[in-house]
Amino acid sequence: MNDCLKAIAPDTTFRFACSPAVACFNECCQDLNQFLYPYDILRLKKRLGLSSVEFLERYTTRHIGPESGLPIVALKAAAAERLTCPFVTQKGCRVYPDRPASCRTYPLVRAISRNRETGEVNERFMLLKEPHCSGFDAPTAQTVSQWTNNQEIGIYNHFNDQLLDIIRLKNQLRPGPLDLKARHLFYVALYDLDRFRNQMINNKLLDNIDVEPQKLADAKADDTALLEVGMEWVKQVLFKMQRFRGSGFKGSRV
């Protein structure tokens, strides 16, 4: 894999395009090892008209990261023998407008670092040029910046970068594995948004956190605002619980 990666600058052009006319069309949707970020799940469950509970139970598996000790959600393969993506068809991806961040970014790989003094996020890109992929023979060329803009990756990176900040915060404040309850709370607040909204409204879950009142109001109906609130709840309560009287969270289903 490392032999296929090459650093590429934002203003550097590369040739790539994918369509049914490409010989390897849909091949990248096999041999699936697809991790999902919270914003991926938000978009996918809305696209499919499912609640977060339904989507997670039907399409994902969950395990605990060996280094972070946090829940990791992965897409469940549709065909075990080829590990096929459950959303791929002969005509292509049936959830394409709301496909996950890694699908949008491909064939690029994005890495970030944060300046400790200024907090500024620096991003680097690499081009993943796999031997089997015929998309690199396309006449279409674009810069890295053009590709990321055209693929509408910005909103995904916004939330994914926040998740990485949460993981760093957790490692600083609560190093080592989380207990079972804390893992459950983390999972619900970030991945199971419909359940989190139910708890937010019925159990006054957010009484003790510092969030803009308008964002709290928006979160009652808007999933994107709710995810922002969930991330704040994790940072302010779950990883700094000693500052508050309690989380107010219960384990009921939606």
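the 2nd protein, sequnce then structure:
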Amino acid sequence: MKRLPTMITATFLGTVAFTSPVYAQCTVPNVITNGQVADASKVMENFDAVAACVDDVVDTTTGVPQNGEIAVFAGSTSVTSGDLSGDVTTSGSTVTTLATTGVVAGSYTNANITVDDKGRVTSATSGQIGGGGTSYTKYVVAGAGDSFIDVELDADGGTAYHVIVKGAPSANTGLGFRLSSDNGASFYSGSADYKSGSASSASSINLARGNTIGSARQTIADFTVVGMNTPNTRVAVTGSVFSAKSNGSTISTTIGGHNNGLAANDFDAFKVFVGAGNMDDFQIFVQRVY
């Protein structure tokens, strides 16, 4: 039997994820030379010593892992370092990056979406508002105490919309309507922008037809706006408004207004607002007519 060395070098885990290899010296208790009758007990003592040494190396490995060097199998008996790949990746650090789907972050109205087999949204577009007079889209205030709601229609592209407004003002006020040609980024409000056929308002179409809506009075405006999303045109509003009480009497009157103070344009958003205070339970329901 060949002689077993008295010192065995172990390099376990030295190439996994450390700044330098880890070495440990393993010593066996018995020396066996050629020609000597092998004693099974001594041979087993040597094997046990090596096994114990290997266990110590595995259990007490030292070193500092390097960022990005994740342990991966390079073969059936070897381990090396590498980065994650696929939907989640790493690149030289422990920070993981989730692959994008190409969908633009944001809000979509009546969204049409595509979902892959991993549950990720891979496409999203805004759908039509209302859809030919069959349903309404609800708009609410961004936070408590708001005095207006902006309704953006550019993604929908309709011409005529049925609009229902509800709420109770916190103070005696009027109810106004303004237009935008940049999808709600700004609204026309100058003294020459509007000439309402139903009131003398110079900065908006007066949906209350010049009446003052009393505070805390439940109010409903029901009207149709025509001429949206149509180049080189003006917009007309027609309908009715009702308020339970105003200065001791109920408002129940027609709405009829237009923006003939403005040059014809491609108007793609509108704003409904109160002139004073805010509107409690302020909601707008919009249905595309055509």
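Residues 1-23 have pLDDT under 50 and may be disordered. The CA atoms of residues 275 and 286 lie 22 Å apart.
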